[in-house]
Each structure stands twice: as C-alpha cells, then as structure tokens.
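Inverse folding, one chain.
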C-alpha cells in the first residue's frame, strides 16, 4: 500500500513542483518495457488518446499447497470472452467520467461489490502499437475473506458468462520441475498489457522476488519437450524405451549379416554351376524324364474317366 500511495502522490504533483524521481520499470529479461508516465502526465494527454483502467485485487494467503508449498497471495484475474486472460476493467470515456468513476462502473458490471479510489492507483504506461492508448493500473489489497466474497459475487454479475467467463487465481509459486505454477501460467495468452501489468505489480508490491519473476519468464521461453516424452517420463517408461531401441540395433545388424551370407552362397553356387555345365544338363534331363512319364499316362488314361467309372461302380453295387 505504501508503494501505491507513493506512486499516486507522484502522479498528482503539478508541473512546477520540481523534478520527479525516476519512475520504476519492470526490468525482467524477455518482457518488452512499456514507457511509464505519471498520472499527471497521463491526464495532460490530448483528446486523441484513449484511457483504459484495470485493477488487480489480491489478498495475503497463508495456505500451503500439498502442505508444503506456500501460496503467499491470492491474486485475481479473469478469463475473457476471447479466451485471453486479463484484469477486471475496461476503457473509460474521459469526457464523462473520471478514471476511478469509469473503472468502478466497469467493475460493478463484472464484480458487483468493490469500489476503488485514487489511493489504489499504481501506475500508467503508454501501450505499443498503432492505437494511442494509455493503460492505467490499480491495485487493492483485501482480506482473503473479502476476496472470496468478490469471487462469489462475480458469478452473479451481469457480465458473467458473456464478456467474462470466470475468475481465476494466479499461482505465484514455482514447483520443483521449474514449470508448474507461475511459469506455466505465464505461458498463457494475455490481452494487451495484462501480462506486463501483472509482472510489474508483483515486483513493485514485493509479492514475488525479482529473480523469481525472471526465472519464471525464462522458463516459458525454453522449448518444451514433446508430450509423448513427458508422458513417458511421468510413467517411468522412458528408461525402458532406450534399451529396447539399443537391442534393436544388434538385431538389425544380425539380419544384415545373414542376408550377406545368403547372397555370397548364391554367388558361389552359380560359379560352380558355370564350371560344370554337363552335370547341369544331366540333372535337367533326369528332372524332365520323371515329369514326362506321368504326362504320358495322363494322355492314355484320363483321370476324369477313371474316377467316374469307379464312382459308378460303387453306386451300382448297393442297388443290386
């Protein structure tokens, strides 16, 4: 809360009040920086700029996952209608609303029971891209009971099931595999500046150490293993697969040697046949002679007539 109050105060300083201290930056490798500006600077932007206001609601959480992983905080985000993750909020028309009034109007549609003030202001950034948008971000610390009440109220809000698919909590821990928890969560798709704002708030509010944020972001940028390899590792079948493949190599080599031996034997037999042509002719004549005898007998005594005669004889005898 002290950090939020300090940044809100910096945002309201008049132009002639002296030089402002440098605005904090994210400084996490792999995440593009957005240009920070004070609230006062943002309010002086011309009519060609659009203003978006979003809020992060969070609460200290003393719970332990599996009895050993500290949860530390419960941080609320929401799944949007387009399948992207974002924070509650939206665009504010500065012609009719102040930043906080416009934000509370949108929060009332999506959450129903929370109102933020200028004391909850955290930061403003210019977004990248062709659209001229300045993104304002707010953060409010609640008790865990208050946060749970908002989660229940969100289910009954007007936008639930339409523009908002549901609320989700951000896992701030990292499991032993260095992917479970925050790294996997950061691998999802976020809308606009939501991912940057999440990391920025976690750093500025000292909710996650900066080195842990950098490790989580770096883990999402590493190439992932194929799903088959991960499943095999999870079931313990991975070590057995490698020896089977190794055994297949000698088997393949043995088959190749057998084929080579047969080819060599065939070549040698052909060479011997070429050296003894007479023996080949004699063996061929012998082979032709036995084959010719049955053929001659077949001409003299057709097999079909002999069979019919025998059949007629067997049938005629019982009839007598």
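Residues assigned per position:
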């Amino acid at each position: 809360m002290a950090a939020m109050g300090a940044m809100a105060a910096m945002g309201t300083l008049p132009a002639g009040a002296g030089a402002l201290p440098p605005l904090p930056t994210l400084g996490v490798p792999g995440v593009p920086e957005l240009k920070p500006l004070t609230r006062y600077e943002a309010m002086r932007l011309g009519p060609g700029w659009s203003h978006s206001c979003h809020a992060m609601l969070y609460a200290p959480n003393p719970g332990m996952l599996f009895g050993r992983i500290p949860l530390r905080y419960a941080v609320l985000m929401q799944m949007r209608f387009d399948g992207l993750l974002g924070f509650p909020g939206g665009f504010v028309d500065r012609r009719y609303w102040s930043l906080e009034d416009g934000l509370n109007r949108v929060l009332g549609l999506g959450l129903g029971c929370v109102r933020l003030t200028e004391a909850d202001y955290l930061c403003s950034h210019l977004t990248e891209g062709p659209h001229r948008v300045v993104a304002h971000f707010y953060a409010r610390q609640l008790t865990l009971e208050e946060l749970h009440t908002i989660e229940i109220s969100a289910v009954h809000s007007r936008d639930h099931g339409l523009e908002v698919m549901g609320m989700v909590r951000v896992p701030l821990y990292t499991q032993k595999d260095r992917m479970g928890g925050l790294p996997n969560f950061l691998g999802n798709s976020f809308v606009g500046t939501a991912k940057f704002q999440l990391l920025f708030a976690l750093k500025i509010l000292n909710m996650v150490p900066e080195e842990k944020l950098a490790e989580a972001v770096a883990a999402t940028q590493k190439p992932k293993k194929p799903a088959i390899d991960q499943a095999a590792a999870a079931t313990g079948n991975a070590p057995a697969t490698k020896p089977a493949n190794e055994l297949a190599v000698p088997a393949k080599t043995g088959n190749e040697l057998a084929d080579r031996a047969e080819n060599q034997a065939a070549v040698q037999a052909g060479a011997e046949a070429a050296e003894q042509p007479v023996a080949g002719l004699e063996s061929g004549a012998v082979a032709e002679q036995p084959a010719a005898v049955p053929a001659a007998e077949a001409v003299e005594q057709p097999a079909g007539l002999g069979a019919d005669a025998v059949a007629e004889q067997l049938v005629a005898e019982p009839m007598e």
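The radius of gyration is 42 Å. The chain has eleven helices and eight strands.
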